Amino acid sequence: MNDDTLKIIPLAPLIWLVCIVYGSLIPFHIRPVVFSDALILFRQIPLLNLEAGSRADWVANILLYTPLGFLLSGAVFSKSTSVLKNSLLSGAVFFSCLLVALLVEFFQIFFSPRTVSLNDLIAETIGSLAGVFLWQACGQKLLKTWQVLTCKSRPESRLTAMFVFYVIFLISIALFPFDFLISIQEIHKKFQTWKTQPFLDSGFVFWLKIPVEAMLFIPLGGYIGLKLRHVSLKRKMIFTLTVALIISFLIEFLQFFLVSGISQPFSVLVKGAGAFAGLLITKIPMNRYWVFFKPFAGLLAAGAMPLYLIICLRLNGWGVSGWINVRSAISSFEFHMLIPFYFHYFTTETRAVLSLILSFGLYVPIGMVGWILRFRLSLSVFIAVGLAFAVESGKLFQAGLHPDFTNILVAGVSVITGFKLLGYFLPVLSQLYNE
């Protein structure tokens, strides 16, 4: 494949446009407004004075339109060396994104309880500009990196490409929702709160967060171990711990300056331990051990299943507030529970995305175990979708909970992702082990 073909397929921005429209109009409660009155209301949309707690929702509009500007720029990209032509294309992309934002905001007037403000339009304009700029700055480089992943490149090259996307993912997760503090008063208030928080928490979520943070840094140590596999173990250990501690400290430092960020010194040690574990994994002769453990993989998966189910049910709120009877459960069912992402409108953008990430992460192991046990992908998806349906349906019988059948879709996508990623990564890592 040559450079001239490195363009984003037109379907990609179209799919993202559908996502924007769907997410902007949900929960689809029609508000009867005369078209002429809607025009008057749109011309009078206010500029709101947003507090720090609303900043994440405002930034979410930036993040929503950044991919649209990026993908649309990539779809119309031209290899022409003409600065004028590329400038005109970038301008056309920006104004197309701006037109989408104006139309979406206008039609929100016809949907309750949606609100329209200049703040949203400003954020969407910034997001569109950011998307166009990102394409100009690094779009081709990212596409070339993606090309390395999808083509039969050398294992060393694919390892580096994996690491690039891993770093992007890690930064995105660590700094989401990018609601940075913007005044001395906000920083002072955050510092006062930070001083009173305990070094260690006793909550269930905190202790679950520890292994998750460690696992997020395992690829860092793994990458260093494979990249420097001909260097002595002592030097790799020192280098890995130094890099991991510096990166984790910077992450915790930056999280302090997020309105919704929780910065804890203890997390620096956890992340460092995760990277160290990733380094040690690269020293294990995986192929040799896999031959030994392969016959017992099914038994190990079956043995871990009860613990997995307990964690899955606990994180979904089962057993927290008690059970209700069948009649009350059935009567509490409403059709809107079946609408994808319906409940995400009635919470903050941060909580909605974190809920999606949690649901996604819960079902990834099913896809990975399915690949290890050589299940068909369809069977793995069926198991995850069935479990998600049981978990969400069971919420009808839990006091204070409501099912969100969006998680069934999330479970399906999660399993496919886990199945495909493991099927891609392990052969590459196996080749590197054998070099």
List the defining traits of the structure above.
435 residues; mainly alpha; 3 domains; two-stranded antiparallel sheet; 2 strands; 1% strand
What features would you describe in this structure?
The longest helix has 33 residues, at 118-150. This protein has helices spanning 11-25, 35-43, 55-75, 83-107, 118-150, 155-175, 184-196, 204-227, 233-256, 265-281, 286-293, 297-315, 326-331, 349-372, 377-394, 406-434; strands at 29-30, 111-112. With 435 residues, the chain is mainly α. It contains 16 helices and two strands. The two termini are 27 Å apart. It folds into three domains: 3-141, no CATH class; 152-283, no CATH class; 289-435, no CATH class. Helix content is 70%, strand content 1%. The protein is globular. Residues 1-5 have low confidence and may be disordered. A two-stranded antiparallel ribbon has the order 1-2. Helix 4 (83-107) packs across helix 5.
Short description:
The chain is mainly α. It has helices at 11-25, 35-43, 55-75, 83-107, 118-150, 155-175, 184-196, 204-227, 233-256, 265-281, 286-293, 297-315, 326-331, 349-372, 377-394, 406-434; strands at 29-30, 111-112.
Strands of the largest sheet, in order across it? 1-2
C-alpha geometry:
globular
Order of helices and strands: HEHHHEHHHHHHHHHHHH
Q: Share of helix among residues?
A: over 70%
How many separate helices? Answer: 16
Runs in which pLDDT lies below 50 for 5 or more consecutive residues are 1-5
Mean pLDDT metric: 85
Structural class: mainly alpha
Largest sheet: 2 strands, antiparallel
What is the C-alpha radius of gyration, as a whole number of Å? 24 Å
> Total domains, how many?
3
Distance between the termini: 27 Å
**Oligomeric state as shown:** single chain
Task: Give the total of beta strands.
Answer: 2
